[in-house]
């Protein structure tokens, strides 16, 4: 900033400048941690929202991406397999898998 002007920095530049992890990885990690928390929750409303399919007519066209689709894709990318709900039931293994990936 020698010229006195501000510029928009890219995520890669921010990572190297501040030595922090990628913002995308931080968001994915938070989503996975929240998914495990929500699945293990004793609140029946949260469980109902995650398990049930709404009745009614669907709109035309390609179906929109659901929050759960993103969670499933993130778990698959980390090597966690298909059924993320089964893995989320075990809190310690879920946390370890979210932080470092499943083996």
Write the layout of secondary structure elements.
Elements: H1 11-18, H2 23-40, H3 44-51, H4 67-77, H5 84-88, H6 91-100
List keywords for this structure.
58% helix; 6 helices; 103 residues; mainly alpha; single chain; extended
Structural overview:
With 103 residues, the chain is an all-alpha fold. The protein contains six helices and no strands. The protein has helices spanning 11-18, 23-40, 44-51, 67-77, 84-88, 91-100. The radius of gyration is 18 Å and the shape is extended. The termini are far apart.
SSE class: mainly alpha
**What does the radius of gyration come to?**
18 Å
Number of helices: 6
**Percent of residues in beta strands:** under 5%
Mean pLDDT comes to: 86
Distance between the termini: 44 Å
Strand element count: 0
* Largest sheet, strands/sense/barrel: none
Short description:
With 103 residues, the chain is an all-alpha fold. 58% of the residues lie in helices and 0% in strands.
């Amino acid at each position: 900033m020698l010229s006195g002007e501000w510029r928009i920095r890219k995520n890669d530049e921010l990572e190297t400048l501040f030595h922090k992890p990628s913002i995308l990885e931080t968001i994915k990690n938070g989503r996975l941690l929240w998914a495990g928390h929500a699945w293990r929750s004793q609140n029946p409303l949260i469980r109902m929202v995650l398990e049930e399919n709404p009745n009614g007519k669907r709109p035309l066209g390609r179906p929109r991406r659901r929050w759960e689709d993103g969670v499933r894709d993130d778990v698959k990318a980390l090597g966690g397999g298909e059924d993320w709900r089964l893995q989320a039931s075990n809190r310690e293994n879920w946390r370890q898998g979210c932080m470092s990936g499943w083996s």
